[in-house]
Structure formats: structure tokens, C-alpha cells
């Protein structure tokens, strides 16, 4: 017997395509365009699965899902929506939706989800979703939809999450969203940045210490694990963790307990771990600087944040949001023209969303009229080495071609010859971009701070030369 599907969709084109695709798979499809008609159909017959849009001609398709659950508790609900924000994804998750598909969606993926929903035939109780106000993510690009969907999948469990992405993409915001929107929201959220702590103090910071455990330990100290008990512990820049601390962290994750430095007693802790890194951990595992077993313990649910250059369609919304922030911080109110947004979208954004925010604040500060236009964008970013991605690529390729033509490296020496030529200017560029700050330069390069210091000595680079004069 074929399975029945109720499709609630007021976009006629989408309804037609989905209905035909489901029909070809053997499903009996009943389609409607309103909440009123949906309710009437559910009163007349039972359906194996329901697909529903959220914004319908007579209301919100998710508002009364709880009432529907009481009438058809076994009917899985798949949500389709063009309102592609994190709030929408969370609302779908909170309503116990079987799956959420932002528009435009992959039709084959939708068909697979329908088949899985029919096979599992699960349901559940509804809950009220949080307000859109204050949510940390902006962007409706397909790249961000994948992030939203992964976040919603971990809100009702305590699986360990590893967030990867370049500096400035918002990795800590992912951790905060998982905490604030998840089941541990009433517990503490504690963050620690491994790159910002001297290696010999990391274990004390994580696990605490007893009085007299080491020189300077004049009193007992509670570590981040105990501080985060009942909540979420965010381990930022996990790739900068020294080997000894990695071993103790692995043991804590395996046992669910910690021991303070200098202590003898095991202390049970109940924390949800979210870790993050802007470094590629696989090469570090191969080099023996990061434990493979710790990686697998952390990488239960991977979430990769896209760089801003891979979600350029979000730049306009982000820029307008940051203009609102600038106004709330005392700057004048401004709008931004489409041409100015296009100019911003053409830039390379090596610093990602964090860099965009800083540029927008400078635009608001320097604007001489209500609307920020393309001319002002070009003025503000001029001289900041804000080349477009294409220009950056062409410039580097030209420099490489010129070097190869001049040097004519022997076979088997090309890689090392090119590395020797470009490594020093690359490190100098990073230092210049970060005003001589070695920690931030190492973060930009994606290398360990100690590695950078070693390179500075080997290449005879004086970082103080790049400090901005005040």
C-alpha cells in the first residue's frame, strides 16, 4: 500500500514540483495552501507524513503544531521554509520537526527524508521557540543553512562538538548558540582560549589546583571544568594545547572526572564540551603534535564555519546589522547603498566577519551623509591592503611566475625554493596586518605562537618594526 503525504505549501510552483516528485516515488499526495484547509484534511483522514511551509496565506504553519500533535502524534512533520534564519531552524527543531529544509532545497534530499520519516514514523511534543532577538547569526546563504541545521541537531543532546573555521568566522558564537538554545541554557557557559594562556598554566586553568601545588599557588583555585559544571565548556583554539594537557583532557573526557593539580581526589564533573580551532588538525596529528585519540573524542559532531568569501550574499545583511550596532554605540545612523554593498562583497575579507564589522564601524564614523556609498567604501578601505580576491590571486601568481623565471630551480627543489622565497614576506605581512602582535599574527597564519617565534629567529625578522607608531 502506498503511503500518504499531506503537503501544505502556498507556492504553487514548489507544490507542483514536490507533488510530482513524490508521486513518481509512489506516494499519494494531498496538497493544500492554507492552515484552515490543512486542519480540515487532517480531520477527515490520517497521513503518514506532513510537509509544511511556515509562512502560509492564513498564518504561521508552526504556531499550532502542538495541537496537531495531540490529534496525530505519530505523524512526522517536515518543515520547508524560505525564512532561512537560525531562529527558523531552531523553531523547527523545537517543534520536534523530523527534518528542516531551507528553500531552495535539494529535491533528492527531501525525498530521502520523506522515506526516512515514513519508515521511522516518529512524533513528539512541541515547544515554543526562542525569539529572534539577540540570536548571534545573520545570513541566509546556503553555506549558513548547513551551519544552522547542524546546530539544531545538537540542541537536545550532549554530544561533543568541534567547530572549525578561519579566524573571525564566529566559532565562539556557535558555542554560545548551542549553549543558549540547548538543554543546558540554565547552566554556566565557560570559555577558555588555549592560545592566550602560557602552556605551563593551562592544566591549572582547566582543572584547578590545590594550595602549594606549585610555586605561587598560595590558595586553592577552581578550574574551568568545575566552573562549567552543569553547563558548557568552550575550548577555543584547541590546536594550541600542549601535549601534556591533551593527555589530561582526554582522560577527563573519558572518565567524566578531573583531578586538580596537586590534588588526590577525583571530582566528578558534568559538562558539555564544544571545542574550536582555526588550524588543520590532521597535519598536526601526522606530525605528532596533536593526539589522534583526542581528536576523535572531540570530533563527534563537526561543524565547519564558512569564510565570508564563501557567503558573499550575506554581506549586505551583515553590514546593515553592524550599522545598527554602530548606532547603538553612539555613532550616527546610516544606511548603505546597494553599490556600496557590492564594493564590500568584492573584497577578500581575510579577517572574515570580524573584519567586516570593523570596516563598517569605520564607514559609519567617516560617513559625511546619511547613505554610505561606494565612493566612501573605496576611500575607507584604500591603503588597507584590501585587494579583491581575484586581484590577490593574480598578484601572487605574477610574483610566483617572476620568481620561477628568475630562479629556475632545479627539479626536486621547487617547493623548498618557493617556500624560502615567500615565507618571510608572508610572515612579515601577517605581522604588519596585526601591528606587530605576535599572538594575533600566529593566529592569522594558522600556526603555533612558538613556531612563529622560531621562524622570526630563523628568518631574522624583527616584529617590533611592524608595531604601529602612536
From TrEMBL:
Keyword Membrane part of the UniProt annotation: no
Stretches assigned to the Sigma-54 factor interaction domain: 137-365
Residue numbers bearing the 4-aspartylphosphate modification: 53
Domain called Response regulatory: residue spans: 4-118
Spans through the membrane: none
CDD domains: AAA
Molecular function terms, GO-annotated: ATP binding; sequence-specific DNA binding
Protein location: Cytoplasm
GO BP terms, alphabetized: phosphorelay signal transduction system; regulation of DNA-templated transcription
One Pfam family recorded for the sequence: AAA_lid_14
Keywords, in A-Z order: Activator, ATP-binding, Cytoplasm, DNA-binding, Nitrogen fixation, Nucleotide-binding, Phosphoprotein, Repressor, Transcription, Transcription regulation, Two-component regulatory system
SUPFAM superfamilies: CheY-like, Homeodomain-like, P-loop containing nucleoside triphosphate hydrolases
First-listed, main subcellular location of the protein, grouped into a coarse class: cytoplasm
Superkingdom as given in the UniProt entry: Bacteria
Cellular component annotations (GO), alphabetically ordered: cytoplasm
Role according to the record: Member of the two-component regulatory system NtrB/NtrC, which controls expression of the nitrogen-regulated (ntr) genes in response to nitrogen limitation. Phosphorylated NtrC binds directly to DNA and stimulates the formation of open promoter-sigma54-RNA polymerase complexes.
Designated name of the protein: DNA-binding transcriptional regulator NtrC
